[in-house]
Amino acid sequence: MDLDALRFGNFSQLGQAITDWEEMAKKLATLEKDARDNLGGKAAKARWTGENAAVTRSFVEKTAAEFADAHTQARTVARILADTRDELVAFRDDLTEEISRAAKKNLTVRDTGDGSFTVTLNIHPDRAAKGTTLPEHSQSDMEGLRDRVQAILRQATRSDTTAAEALRLMVDQAERGFSGADYADRDSAAKALAAAEALAKTLKKDPSEVTATELNAVNATLATYGKDPLFAEKLATSTTPDGLLTFYAGVADPYQGFGADPNRLKQAKLLQKNLGVALGTATLSDSAAMRSWEQKMVKLGPEELGTDHANNPRGFAVMSNLMRFGDYDDQFLNEYGEQLVAFDKERNVKNMSPWINNWNNGDLNFYSKNDRGRDPMTGFMEALGHNPGAATEFFSQPTGTGSGVDKESELNENLKYLTKERIWLSDAYIMGGDNKVIAGHDSLGHALEAATTGYAYDADPMAAKDPMIPGNRDMRTAETAGVMEQVAFLYGSEDGPKMLHEQSQLADSLGKMGAAYIDDIDYSMSGLGDRAKDEGLFTPKYQGRADFGEQGAINFLSVIGQNETSHGVVSAAQHLYTLSMLDAHPPTNEANMNNAHDALTTGGEVRGILDHSRVQQAEVTYKDEAEEQNKSLGRSGDWVKLGAGVVVGGGIAAIPLPGSTAAALVVAPLAADTVGNAVNTFIGHEVDKGIDKAQDDPTEKAQLTSQEFYSRGIQQQADAYATYIGADPDVKKDTNLRDWPQHIENSYFGTGSQQNDYRGRPAHKD
Fold it and tell me: 507, 567 in Cβ contact below 8 A?
């Protein structure tokens, strides 16, 4: 900054700009509140149908979010401008004071342009008038003045340039709309940018020379600023994609640091997560610099990094492990994924994997004993599992296929390749891992969960109470339904039983997907064949609902029913959905009772398919081993325990997946936003009464013959019926009810998946 620019600076225009921005921020705060409470709040609570569900709701929610970002950006601009103005005024005052004190010592400071200045004498002693006494000064006075003025100008320049950089980066963050970057003042934004610059210098070092102490500092900085948009972009653009990947590969290399510092591997694990989060944040910027960075990263994917570390991995192998963590830009993930799949397809040869082989010892993942991170497809699937929008796009149904899927030509090529054609291998660690587990299948399931439900696979949908946050509500769309139709077709096909058996790690995910669409499955099962579907009863909760067709729904149910886990999850979801239908149609009039009847019979039919399938698979799997067969059925009966952890809200239920952490929740739709007596009979009841009696005898509890298994299945249907008619004593007198028990029983026992049956897929045989 030039000396005169600061010394004679008139900051009145800047002051007016600050006032304008502060006023704008106040107005936007009002608009944001109105958008959040009225626009967004009402949108979140509304029951959207028709075109409104697909177009209007999305537009309303995005508009409400834009008001929030606009307010944040205006407030941040005002804060940075005000803070910078105050600092510059203070520096100007300091400069003026220094110049005044210098004059008393006959010293003058002159601006010479381009940020330079000189310190000179006002009057040379030899030229002073006779009798004039000049102020005393020394060489040190001149040097001290020079240094103090220089320090003031340096600080003023830093204040001005960092403010300009922060504002420029913030504006560039969003090509359209507004940035969500939020800073209390210029100093906090400047600190974030300075931290990024300092960290970039460390990341450019040879990773083998980076100490555990330095890694600790790297992780501390990333943990503090990883989700800061300006920091993340500055860090990414101050480094190169190959430089970042080489650094992580070197730190992750198991041969680095052994015997030197046991803390190194701990720090390497933290680096994988922290750096992944920061890079994800960076990709959310729409700036030209970040778009260029992303293109370079995608192009780098197939290339070897040219490093001695971690077996000289390709870009895909390293980046896929970093992107397991963080929120990434959808377009970037899809461009990256398309390149990865194309590269992988060309090398999809038996016993010739370019990733998992005897000579590749580049372990790059620290978060699972069954996943060394050598296969980049696994890490990419994890990334999709945490980024639902990108996952839905990556597996989107091809355009022009119409409603439903009934042939392979209507399948997304990525989905078909990853589920049917790709050779997935176990990537377990030799020590501590299980080579029977294929981590890639589990991660593929996570990606499909996100693509079909709209939630990250490990999200807690009940954690979000703010309507501006996607949570506590149904996130399905026509696009997510398009993915679900493909999944149901694939796993309900003739190859479905074999696929499920060979991809057993997907069972829990398939169960969660089936549960998420249980209302659409019931709708597909209603009516006569594919005619006379009861849309009045099974009202769509979003535009473009999934269309499985009756046979498609039966096929899918008959396959996922074969597995203990997926059977239990979908059974719980069906039970809850049926009960919520009973609550939504109390026995107060004939129309409601007709709806309740159809809900019970349709639910009974779905449950019957699941249970028949489970029994048939147990018989085939264990053949003459009656005890093991009965134990398997006993475990399948334990799904009723899931009721103890069910949480409801916003028209959905969150069901805890058995044997998993609280984060592994099943999101299932309910017929109404509020629950009544019928649903409450399930929620909070740890065990079914029949199973509860066997608690004192673990052996008896674990064993269940097929006869008793069916008996308990129909009993649960009977209990639902009893709950409904028991709500009003007068209802029991209704003569129309006399045929209901037989109808419900027929619906439950009238379907199956036996080979000689007319519907469903047969049990899988090895």
Answer: no
Quote the CA–CA distance of 165 and 196 in Å, as a whole number. Answer: 13
Q: Which amino acid is at 317?
A: A
One-letter amino acid for residue 646 of the chain: V
Q: Which helix (H) or strand (E) holds 300?
A: helix 288-300
Full-model pTM: 0.83
194-226 burial string, b = 16+ CB within 10 Å, else e? Answer: ebbeebbebbeeebeebebeebbbbbebbeebb
Residue pair 301/340 in contact (Cβ under 8 Å)? The answer is yes
Query: CA 221, 380, 517 angle in degrees (round to 5)?
Result: 115
Q: Poorest-confidence range of 120-129, 459-468, 531-540?
A: 120-129
How far apart (Å, rounded) are the C-alpha atoms in residues 235 and 755?
60
Element (H, E) at 649: strand 647-649
**Cβ atoms within 10 Å of 733's Cβ, excluding its own:** 9
- Interior CA angle at 235 toward 234 and 241, to 5°? 115
Taking CA atoms, 208 is separated from 197, 260, 681, in Å, by 21, 12, 61
- The 10 Å Cβ neighbour count of residue 128 is 12
Q: Which helix (H) or strand (E) is 102 found in, with range?
A: helix 57-103
Assess whether pLDDT exceeds 70 at residue 124. Answer: no
Length of the chain: 766
| C-alpha of 86 from chain center | 41
Classify each residue of 612-625 as buried b or exposed e, where b means 16 or more C-beta atoms within 10 Å of its C-beta: bbbbbbbbbbbeee
pLDDT of residue 257: 45
Q: What 8-state DSSP symbol labels residue 52?
A: I
Distance (Å, whole) CA 469 – CA 454: 13
Tens digit of pLDDT for each residue in 380-417? 999 999 999 999 999 999 987 777 898 898 999 999 99
- Dist CA 465 CA 458 (whole Å): 17
Q: How many CA atoms within 13 Å lie on the side-chain side of 435?
A: 4
Query: What pLDDT, in 10s, does the model give residues 640-661?
Result: 888 888 888 888 999 988 655 5
CB 560 within 8 A of CB 589: no
